[in-house]
Amino acid sequence: MSSNEPSKTSAYGDKAMGAVKENAGWAMGNKQMETEGKAQGAKGDAQLEAARAEQKAIGEKDKLKGNIKETAGNLLGNEQWQAEGKGDRLKGEAREKMNI
């Protein structure tokens, strides 16, 4: 994963740090810190949604690739393609289910 790709880890980090800043700013009466915390939390929310969307797209691609390969294997009687296709399809389904 490159630094330009959305990351759930950094998203959760921004959400947590944003909540800490927001609450600390509120407790100290520091409106600037509170506002910065809200903004950082919103950034984390946006990163998380982007990461989820990316993982969903990868899962869909894996499922499609698997379905095509498995179908071709069935039509041609190629057991290796059948197995590889099923594996890709299941990998895509698992990626989608784990995309919380």
UniProtKB/TrEMBL annotation:
Residues 56-97 form the CsbD-like domain. InterPro entries: CsbD, YjbJ_sf. Residues 34-100 are annotated as: Disordered. Transmembrane segments: none annotated. Pfam families: CsbD. It comes from the Eukaryota. SUPFAM superfamilies: Hypothetical protein YjbJ. Residues 51-68, 85-100 have a biased composition (Basic and acidic residues). Belongs to the UPF0337 (CsbD) family. This is CsbD family protein. It comes from Acanthamoeba castellanii (strain ATCC 30010 / Neff).
